[in-house]
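Reading is simple: each integer encodes one residue's backbone shape. The lines below illustrate:
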Amino acid sequence: MRGEKLTKKWRLIKLSRMHYSDFAVRFIEEMLEDNERLHDFSVKYGMEKGAEVKRNLHLKDFSDVAEFLSMITGVRVSEKEGGVVFDGCPSREMTEVRKTVICTGFLEGFFKVFGYDVEVNAACGEKCRVEVKKRTSSSR
């Protein structure tokens, strides 16, 4: 009888040490699957970061904004007709998350603060290539 109680106590101690909550991890994994909410959140986050930059730096035009993102993230940028192309993902460097919907949302929000309505095309994979174009009235 005494041996059974002792065994039971040790098993309880062992189980209590193994007990942890995976709620937060599972919640985050679930949220990463909801692309619409993730995009909306990324746009807001991009706008917050863009507003912070706008308050502190005077960036004159579209290419200045792109160049700033390039400098702060270390991602190379080149100009293309009507926009810019990043050879890498600038939003990944700022958000620390690699997901296309986050990349597009973040960049849309960031450029929006500076008054640019942009269209973001991201080809993410082993090496990301992100094209950001100024949206014209005909491309809406």
